[in-house]
Amino acid sequence: MSDEQIKIQLSSAEALVLFEFVSRFTNHGQLEIADQAEERVLWDVCSSLESQLAAPLDSNYQALLSNARSKVRDHNL
């Protein structure tokens, strides 16, 4: 898996809804959908990523996912 950049576009409204959702998770450590708009933004982000990523279709997906998690994880935890 390469380290190339993937870009997704969000409207300013989507970005604000996503920011609030992620901020709430960061502050409380729980994923809780407070409004259907948060669910909609997550679906849209997932759809955008799905259309840009080849890895989910790769027969070696689990290994690619494991490698990606290792790269992203905070290693000092």
Protein model, in words:
The protein is mainly alpha-helical and 77 residues long. The protein has one domain (12-72). It has helices spanning 12-28, 36-52, 61-72. Helix 1 packs across helix 2. The longest helix has 17 residues, at 12-28. 4% of the residues are buried. The mean pLDDT is 86.
Give me some keywords for this one.
77 residues; 3 helices; mainly alpha; single chain; globular
User: Can you count the beta strands?
Assistant: 0
Low-confidence stretches: none
Number of helices: 3
What gap, in angstroms, lies between the N and C termini?
24 Å
Alpha-carbon Rg, integer? 15 Å
Helix content: 55-70%
Number of domains: 1
> How large a portion of the residues is in β-strands, by DSSP E?
under 5%
Category from helices, strands and their pairing: mainly alpha
